[in-house]
Amino acid sequence: MSRVSKPYEIVERALELSRADGCVVIADEESSANLRWAGNALTTNGVTRGRTLTVIATVDGAQGTATGVVSRSAVTVDDLEPLVRAAEAAARTAGPAEDAQPLVTDVPSSPDFTDAPAETSSAVFADFAPALGEAFARARAGGRELYGFANHELTSTYLGTSTGLRLRHDQPNGTLELNAKSPDRSRSAWAGRSTRDFKDVDPAALDAELATRLGWAERRIELPAGRYETLLPPTAVADLLIYQLWSSTARDAVEGRTVFSKPGGGTRLGETLSPLPLTLRSDPNEPGLESAPFVIAHSSGDDSSVFDNGLPIGPTDWVRDGKLEHLITTRHTAALTGLPMAPTAGNLILDGGGERSLEEMVAATGHQGPALLLTCLWYIREVDPATLLLTGLTRDGVYLVENGEVVGEVNNFRFNESPVDLLSRASEASRTEKTLPREWGDWFTRAAMPALRVPDFNMSSVSKGV
Predict the structure, then answer these.
(1) Which domain holds residue 118?
(2) Cα gap 151→174, rounded to integer Å
């Protein structure tokens, strides 16, 4: 085995090999463990390990600074020099980088930079797996079938730069998705959870929730398209507001291309987006939703810059008490737009709702006419960036609420809505709770949201999906 094998040694060796004017090296040490099940029985389980190394070379020239970025997996010490040279060659053949900035300096080193990477294993499921087995037995006795998967990942990221930064972050990320189906597959219900360690996930509680929803679906009612009073659960709110966050870059807004652009020029910063006192925020130190406290950028765009690698990230209110407070900036776009620095963190929280639970909101719903309770959204796509109009489908249960009670399941719908417009029309928010975004769960899992009541959610057409 090579004497240069530890992640920090790989980073240091790559920096030593660099002949560029500047260099950033990011080593991502990844491990994962998973369980899958179908028909009330485990089907597969596995553990994986991997390493990805990204080298970012910067080359100064008369026209400006150029960058070259090369990433490769399963990198060994023998692969380092070819990888570094490839990044340098890419930089020398590229034109000047528009987002060029001096590499970040003067950030204290992580005390655990030279420690071994954190790793997950099947032991993370030590308590969860037996509880899941008990849930299988209850589901079998209750005449329902459970399908789904549990996945736990742990990524240790080591970031080193030619300006002296030596930073490290360990990111655990766990997801659970559980489907309950009737034996004839005509009824389906879904629940999902995000977790750091699977110690706060209760399969029995999830199975009981799904059993209730399958019971609601024993009565089927067909409804036409239209606008309905609708309760959006936290997972659906998260999916919509994550897309809103991704669409809130300052440069695009200043240049008049997004819903956050002000007609006639400028941005909508300072405008009231919601009559409710809602605060949409990110904070790398949010308990239970912790994320990297510094920028980790493998590529550049309007929402991130490789030149910002290592830049500290603090709490940011995107919307405060209903007013638009910040748009996403890098150092480059902050200078370009004159707006304050606001890099994104790896979580999203919506605060400011009431104390009622979703169940209590249901009890106060449907007294003035039929209303809908959703399970989740999926296949969300953008229709119009100028208004952030999105379309998508409901899935795994849309329920009719009359006089404070769920009275049956209705057909699925296609919806057309803008999350920004929804915030302006929402009439109530529940208390905030951790949730798993179903649509964006492969990319963004750390969210806490309330349920929202929307008096006139636009179900634009009927969908035949389950």
Answers:
(1) 7-213
(2) 6
Does 179 share its domain with 48? Answer: yes
Structure tokens of 255? 């240049």
Q: What is the DSSP string of 410-456?
A: E-EEEEEE-HHHHHHH--EE---EEE--STTTTT---EEE--EEEEE
The structure tokens listed for 64 are: 């400006």
CA of 69: how far to CAs of 99, 298, 299, 386, in Å?
A: 14, 8, 7, 32
Q: Tell me: the pLDDT tens digits for 252-269? A: 999 999 999 999 999 999
Residues 176 and 234 in one domain: no
Which of 213, 231, 253 marks a domain boundary? 213
pLDDT band at 382 (very low <50, low <70, confident <90, very high): very high
127, 190, 199, 238, 356 from 175: Cα distances, Å:
15, 13, 12, 15, 26
pLDDT at position 2: 47
d(CA 34, CA 47): 7
| In a shared domain, residues 18 and 160 | yes
Nearest to 394 by CA among 447, 466, 452: 466
How confident is the model over 42-68, as pLDDT tens digits?
999 999 999 999 999 999 999 999 999
Using the predicted structure, report yes or no on whether residue 165 has a pLDDT greater than 60: yes
Residue 291, classed as helix, strand or coil, is coil
CB 287 within 8 A of CB 275: no
pTM of the model: 0.96
Residue 41, classified by CB atoms within 10 Å of its CB into exposed (0-12), middle (13-18) or buried (19+), is exposed
What's the pLDDT at 1? 34
Residues 410 and 459 grouped into a single domain: yes
Question: Buried (b) or exposed (e) across 444-460, using 16+ Cβ within 10 A?
Answer: bbbbbbbbbbbeebbbe
Q: Is residue 251 part of a domain?
A: no
Mean pLDDT of the chain: 96
Return phi, psi of residue 33, to 5°.
Answer: -135, 145
Local confidence band at 457 (pLDDT 50, 70, 90 cut-offs): very high
For residue 234, pLDDT over 70 is answered with: yes
